[in-house]
Amino acid sequence: MLVLLACLAPVAGAAGELELSAHGGLVFPFYEETFEFDPGGLPGLPFGTTVTQEDVFRLDARGGLALGLSASWQFSDWFGVEGRLDTADVSVNTTGARYRIVTELPGPIPDLVNELDLGSGDADLRRILPLSLNLRARTSGRTRVGASAGVSYLPAFKIGIRTEATFAAVSPIPFEIASAQLALDAEALPEDEGQGRVGFNAGAFVQFDVGSHLALQIEGRYFHFQEQTLTWEQPEIDPPLPFPANILVDQLAERLEPVEFNPTFFQVTAGLAVRF
Fold first, then answer.
1. Which residues are CB-contacts of 2 (< 8 A; sequence separation ≥ 6)?
2. Burial class (CB in 10 A: 0-12, 13-18, 19+), 136
3. DSSP class of residue 253?
4. What pLDDT is attached to residue 176?
5. What does the mean pLDDT of the chain come to?
6. pLDDT for 173-232, tens place per residue?
7. Which domains, from first to last, does the chain contain?
8. CA pair distance 42, 194, nearest whole angstrom
9. What pLDDT shows up at residue 260?
């Protein structure tokens, strides 16, 4: 909030009205990603061992909580400037992939069939904190309708996946061998080439006075940024899985393509605005 006030400080000396607001509501993200991974022949596996993928690894975003603060200076009843700090809490649901590991044995011994299930879980998308500087227009009266739009800046952010990996025998005797927590992280960095952080936002609002200086505000706002590339880091498995499951997880992480994440979202919020 101090940064927003600092942005407005040069105009605060002019005649007009200062308005501070706080709001909260729901986020509606636009994101879906499916990871196809054909392991083929992986190095380090025993001779005669093959791996096939039975399900795909999928990420689907779902909306979370939107929070924010804004400070605006109205030069007149209808025109002003606005600084904003918004937070978008976007959760990402993961659908895990399953991999069948078959080791051929000389007959009449049946083949050994194991299965690695990466399970389903949650991915935590952290640090979506757009900063915005907007032009703002509104009507006057006890019920005011307005709109604002301008440029937004998106700092670096991460996505972290936490899921349970299960390694089990399927044939000749089915039983669970081991399970572990699998952690996969990916990060988008501002300094990466082509990773522009500047976007735009636009929204409309309505205010209802509940006092001489206090108003209830309802707002809808759209944020648009270019797609960001998140690069996967080395996976962490705790405790380590038996051979060959560990090899498969390591190879899976090495061959995962970077995530093209779309940080564009829409939010609907309500809050209070105080005028001075």
1. none
2. buried
3. H
4. 85
5. 83
6. 888 889 888 888 888 765 566 667 899 999 999 999 998 899 999 999 999 998 888 888
7. 2-275 (2.40.160.20)
8. 32
9. 78
Assess contact for 228 and 195: CB atoms under 8 A.
yes
The residues, ordered by sequence, that sit 6+ positions from 268 with a Cβ below 8 Å of its Cβ are: 25, 26, 28, 66, 218, 219, 220
Query: Which pTM value belongs to this model?
Result: 0.77
Distance (Å, whole) CA 157 – CA 137 = 32
Neighbour count for residue 55 (Cβ, 10 Å): 12
Q: How far is CA 232 from the centre of its chain?
A: 14
Contacts 24+ apart (CB under 8 A), 251-256: 251/39, 251/42, 251/43, 252/37, 252/39, 252/99, 253/184, 255/37, 255/39, 256/35, 256/37, 256/232
Cis peptide before 174 (omega within 30 of 0): no
Cβ-based neighbours of 260, under 8 Å, separated by 6 or more: 33, 227, 228, 229
d(CA 201, CA 190): 19
Angle at 73 between CA 69 and CA 76, to 5 degrees: 140
Type of residue numbered 2: L
Q: What confidence tens digit (pLDDT) does each residue in 133-154 have?
A: 999 999 999 999 999 999 999 8
Per DSSP, what are the bridge partners of residue 126?
158
CA 79 to each of CA 75, 82, 146, 183: distance values in angstroms, whole numbers, following the listed order: 6, 10, 10, 49
Residues linked to residue 217 through DSSP beta bridges, in sequence order: 207, 271
